[in-house]
Amino acid sequence: MRRPSPWHHGCVDERPGRPPRRLAREEKTIAAMIALYCRDHHADVVGPDGGLCGECSALLEYARLRLAKCRYGADKPTCANCETHCYRPEMRARVRAVMRYSGPRMLRRHPVLTAAHLADRHKTPRTG
Fold first, then answer.
1. Which pLDDT does position 1 carry in this prediction?
2. Is residue 99 classed exposed, middle or buried when 0-12, 13-18 and 19+ CB atoms within 10 A define those classes?
3. Which of 93-98's residues contact partners 24+ apart within 8 Å by CB, and which partners?
4. pLDDT at residue 80 above 80?
5. Residue 6 in this model has a pLDDT that exceeds 90
6. What is the pLDDT of residue 59?
7. What is residue 3's DSSP assignment?
8. What are phi and psi of 37, to 5 degrees?
9. Closest by alpha carbon to 53, among 98, 93, 86?
10. Spatial CA neighbour of 8 closest among 86, 78, 62, 70
11. What number of other Cβ atoms are within 10 A of residue 17's Cβ?
12. What is residue 121's predicted lDDT score, i.e. its pLDDT?
């Protein structure tokens, strides 16, 4: 018997074992924002693989975990519009700092992700 994907939240997806497109895009967006922030704030601290520093790596892993466990699944709103704040207060503050810095810079570096994120801001979680 095949194990259910941690990304499956009752939505139909044509790619078993992979996150729905909406969640995959959310993950790409937060990863791009954290990478931009890390590059500009922690350039002197390079991770073991030449990527993110340890602090930003931990933040990205935490964000991925929160996305995977989101109760709204593919119907999730942006976190700022969500009525359920699932981030710990200190991690939420760190993500907000990343978004405050990276948000204005994302339009130039990642215009498609930015446009999708802005469109998603108008979604609200399903009730029931």
1. 40
2. buried
3. 94/59, 95/30, 95/59, 95/63, 97/37, 98/33, 98/34, 98/37, 98/59
4. no
5. no
6. 94
7. P
8. -60, -50
9. 98
10. 70
11. 12
12. 67
